[in-house]
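ok so heres the complex, two chains, lmk if somethin looks off
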Amino acid sequence: MKIKSGFVLRQVGEQYAVVPVGVQTVDFRCVITLNETGGFLWQQLQEETTPEAVAQALLAEYEVSPETAAADVATFVERLRENRLLDE
Amino acid sequence: MNLCIAGLPVRIESADKAWFAGRFADYIREDDRPPVMEMTVRVLETVCPPAGETVQQVKSVTLLRLADGRLCRFGRDREGRVPFALYYTPDYACVELHLWAERRHPVFTLRDWEYMYTGMAFQNRLTVLGGGVLHSSSLAWRGHGVAFSANSGTGKSTHVGLWKQHLGDEVTVINDDKPAIRFEGDMPVLYGTPWSGKTALNQNVHVPLRTIVFIERGETNHLRRLDTMDSYCRLSEQLIRSYYDSELGVKVLDFTDKLLAAVPVYALTCNISREAVETAVRGLFPGEECVLL
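and the predicted structre for the whole thing:
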């Protein structure tokens, strides 16, 4: 799985914003705001990957338990899926 | 027509020459600088799409890459006819617009299409050159440029009209819908352009852009400074991005970052009153003494 093309992640202060460009602008007008962890997860999902690999990356970057990392990634991926932001 | 738009030498060969000569009169230039952009408009009995490699299909619009390196974007109506085709170099420096003479639309005339497509092409060229277009009604007051932005129908033009009414001749409406912004070093400069939406309210002037204000309708009047993320989100929605060019979209985001670093962004909750202007002008320019009419 990976994030669909046409969405650009930008750092804004200490947060992140995801902005559609090009053809994605037709149906997707709003900006997605993410905290630091959300920005990190988005970056991982910009390349083809798996939830397990993203959870591993999260574990390597932040001090969280494997259970918490897996649950956070699952929640994040589900939100992306609901908003049709993933290519799977 | 040789024009100077947002300080840039531009050449436009329009189809409706008499109307364009009137609407663009304030922007005609006599100098011999080479244009940074050339646009030609032709009205044809039939518009035929060229042969090329399909790059993208966006609803009824097809984007082709041609053998000569140019791009061509054309639309089809429900009957399969082609009402327009826009040929352009990837940097938008050279643009050719073909319009179907028999195009019928419940709202827009052929002249409107010519006006709108040339305006969009200019926005693209301006973005390539590092500038941008903010959907806003904008004014100059005592040398300060202020852009009032919001979704269409919120009351941007109404509010700018109130400034004119209550601050009189010190207010110049720069552009009622889509002013250009270019940077001189780190300073953003607000420019009038001939493309100003439904009205002809625009002037070929420029002033430093001091602030951007997002208008919100309310019962009472209140001005507040927006935080960085709120400013960014609102600007991203109102800085114009092309549907057909992702690279250009990224350039608009670069421009957004630069703009955000250069000017404060506010939200003005307001009604239609003299007090709305007073709230804005005293909040935005606390050091300026002024008497409202």
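quick notes: The helical segments of chain B are 17-23, 110-128, 156-167, 228-238, 246-262, 274-284. thats all i got rn
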